Protein: ATP synthase epsilon chain
Amino acid sequence: MATFHFDFVGPERTLYSGEVTAVQLPGTEGEMTVMPGHAPVLTSLRVGVIVITESQGSGKRIYVRGGFADIGPTAVTVLAERAAPIEELTHESLDRDIEAAELQRDATEDLQKREELNGQIVQLQETKALLKL
Structure:
């Protein structure tokens, strides 16, 4: 089965580096699955879960809160604003993220920024429900 190289870099550490068969990304324009030979794309990421498929039936899930993905035919690099393996997430950590986004939203008068933060809050709440935290 064909593979490509995937690097996932968070602000504090590299969360993944290796050969994979597919990566599902929460792009701002919608979910997208990247496979070997993908056309070059640079996309921003929203709050969500990146699903890494290492081989059939084997993979990892990583929570991401914003960032960018540089996609090419032989490699994908994700630079995340905030990220953590699913196993490290807790109910409290997601609640802190929601509270921080709400405080930012309430502190700004920029309507576009408020709308963006409202979207992030909804995405965080959906992620929390999806992960049953």
In short: The two ends are 35 Å apart (CA to CA). The longest strand covers residues 48-55.
